[in-house]
UniProtKB/TrEMBL annotation:
<feature type="domain" description="Orn/DAP/Arg decarboxylase 2 N-terminal">
    <location>
        <begin position="24"/>
        <end position="266"/>
    </location>
</feature>
<feature type="binding site">
    <location>
        <position position="356"/>
    </location>
    <ligand>
        <name>substrate</name>
    </ligand>
</feature>
<feature type="binding site">
    <location>
        <position position="298"/>
    </location>
    <ligand>
        <name>substrate</name>
    </ligand>
</feature>
<feature type="binding site">
    <location>
        <position position="218"/>
    </location>
    <ligand>
        <name>pyridoxal 5'-phosphate</name>
    </ligand>
</feature>
<dbReference type="InterPro" id="IPR009006">
    <property type="entry name" value="Ala_racemase/Decarboxylase_C"/>
</dbReference>
<feature type="binding site">
    <location>
        <position position="302"/>
    </location>
    <ligand>
        <name>substrate</name>
    </ligand>
</feature>
<protein>
    <recommendedName>
        <fullName>Diaminopimelate decarboxylase</fullName>
        <ecNumber>4.1.1.20</ecNumber>
    </recommendedName>
</protein>
<comment type="subunit">
    <text>Homodimer.</text>
</comment>
<dbReference type="InterPro" id="IPR000183">
    <property type="entry name" value="Orn/DAP/Arg_de-COase"/>
</dbReference>
<keyword id="KW-0028">Amino-acid biosynthesis</keyword>
<keyword id="KW-0663">Pyridoxal phosphate</keyword>
<dbReference type="InterPro" id="IPR022643">
    <property type="entry name" value="De-COase2_C"/>
</dbReference>
<feature type="binding site">
    <location>
        <position position="356"/>
    </location>
    <ligand>
        <name>pyridoxal 5'-phosphate</name>
    </ligand>
</feature>
<dbReference type="Pfam" id="PF02784">
    <property type="entry name" value="Orn_Arg_deC_N"/>
</dbReference>
<keyword id="KW-0457">Lysine biosynthesis</keyword>
<feature type="domain" description="Orn/DAP/Arg decarboxylase 2 C-terminal">
    <location>
        <begin position="18"/>
        <end position="354"/>
    </location>
</feature>
<dbReference type="GO" id="GO:0008836">
    <property type="term" value="F:diaminopimelate decarboxylase activity"/>
</dbReference>
Length: 409
């Protein structure tokens, strides 16, 4: 997108505002799909948690993607977007048996990640095939919060518990139709993916009724100019060959699945905010914007890097700034960043704002969550209105108990 497009959107829809470029989502989807073109059956299930706006889900459906979901609410959003239940996988962690049963009754593919629920579900519903999420005991991921496949992680059933899984399957008569793993996010090294994939292939050999193998996600995307990213093409080439060989050994054409979030939407997103104040202190120059970690928490939560550009003054002299929010805790987006000279009132854009940005936004400090705009065919489409004061009050129940107590006193 051009700076002028972003500025026009900020002018029309106000700030702060999230903007997503549909053409980037489409090209990323095609890139990943094409990397596995040598495999007969491939299914990419978009991880809804990354960005769950209905228009984004509809775009994914139009591209041929299914959905990966973690809550019954995400499943309902997917169904509302027109995605068929058979194209949705439910991969929750630590949710109740009741929620899993409710989702299964909708016809959605269930993925179970602990033995207790597997045994209970298999006993009650032996005729509903389920996928199992294994924990491959691989330490991978950009930081500890997003490394989820290691031995201390709460996710998945340990590969050392396969005998126990088999006992449950035999005793209940249930059918395992898929095996799955997800080792973490922001994984750069193709060899780490391939190493973990071998563990999944070893697991798959134990189950005779498989329809698919789901390799999860975690591909690293670039966050700045010249940044490194997972080499999807090389990974595709290597895993496709290994997968096709495995299918031959297994004696059946299986579907190869992934559930990417960040890879599909991260780079499509821009978060636009206005600089309210430029504050020179004894040690630094702060650019204080009309937002905070209530709208974009990744820098504070994960130390995530988001490139920041001054779209109002893209050719101005570069200076160093610490970009901070308006929240009542220290909410620093970036420290000592080289940015084209900022004047109060300028619109700045955070890049890579498609994944885990709006979807992690909150109303902290009683602020409204921002609007969302989809840039499609060179036109801006509002896909979520900015919240209003009424939205903050929506579920509050007003009571007059205190006025009655005052009257009595
Ligand atoms: C089970 C599962 N699948 C897929 C994803 C998406 O990962 P990414 O955004 O790195 O592609 C996640 C992310 O948390 C996840 O937990």
């Amino acid at each position: 997108m051009e700076n002028t497009d972003l500025l026009a959107i900020a002018k029309e829809h106000g700030s702060p505002v999230y903007v997503y470029d549909s053409s980037k989502i489409t090209s990323q989807y095609n890139r990943l799909f094409n990397a596995f073109k040598k495999v007969k059956q491939v299914k990419l299930n978009y991880a809804v948690k990354a960005l769950s706006n209905l228009s984004i889900l509809k775009l994914m459906k139009s591209l041929g993607a299914g959905l990966d979901t973690v809550s019954i609410q995400e499943v309902r959003l997917g169904l509302l977007a027109g995605v068929a239940p058979k194209d949705i996988v439910f991969t929750p962690n630590g949710v109740s048996l009741e929620e899993i049963e409710e989702v299964a009754a909708m016809g959605v593919q269930i993925n179970i990640d602990n033995l207790s629920i597997l045994e209970q579900f298999g006993t009650k519903h032996p005729n509903i095939p389920v996928c199992i999420r294994i924990n491959p005991h691989v330490m991978a991921g950009g930081n500890s919060k997003i490394s989820v496949g290691h031995i201390d992680s709460k996710f998945g059933i340990s590969i050392h518990q396969i005998p126990h899984i088999l006992r449950i399957v035999e005793n209940t008569g249930m059918k395992i139709n898929g095996v799955h793993m997800h080792t973490g996010s922001d994984i750069l090294d193709v060899d780490v993916f391939l190493y973990a994939s071998e563990i999944l292939f070893d697991t798959a050999k134990h189950f005779k009724d498989l329809d698919f193998i789901d390799f999860g996600s975690g591909f690293k995307v670039p966050y700045k100019e010249g940044d490194i990213e997972t080499n999807i093409e090389i990974f595709g080439e290597k895993l496709s060959k290994r997968f096709n060989d495995f299918c031959k050994e297994y004696g059946k054409q299986l579907t190869l699945g992934f559930e990417p979030g960040k890879f599909l939407v991260s780079e499509s997103g821009y978060f636009l905010a206005k600089v309210n104040v430029v504050k020179q202190t004894t040690s630094t120059v702060f650019a204080g914007i009309d937002s905070g970690f209530n709208h974009l928490i990744r820098p504070m939560f994960y130390n995530a890097h988001h490139e920041i550009i001054n779209v109002s003054n893209p050719t101005g002299k570069e200076r160093f700034y610490s970009v901070v929010g308006y929240i009542c805790e220290t909410d620093t987006f970036a420290t000592n960043r080289r940015i084209n000279e900022i004047t109060e009132g300028d619109i700045i854009a955070f890049k890579n704002a498609g994944a885990y940005c709006f979807s992690m936004a909150s109303n902290y400090n009683s602020r409204y969550r921002p609007a969302e705009v989809l840039w499609h065919n060179k036109k801006a489409h509002l896909i979520r209105k900015r919240e209003t004061f009424e939205d903050l009050l929506h579920n509050q129940v007003t009571t007059d108990i205190f006025s009655k107590e005052t009257e009595k006193a």
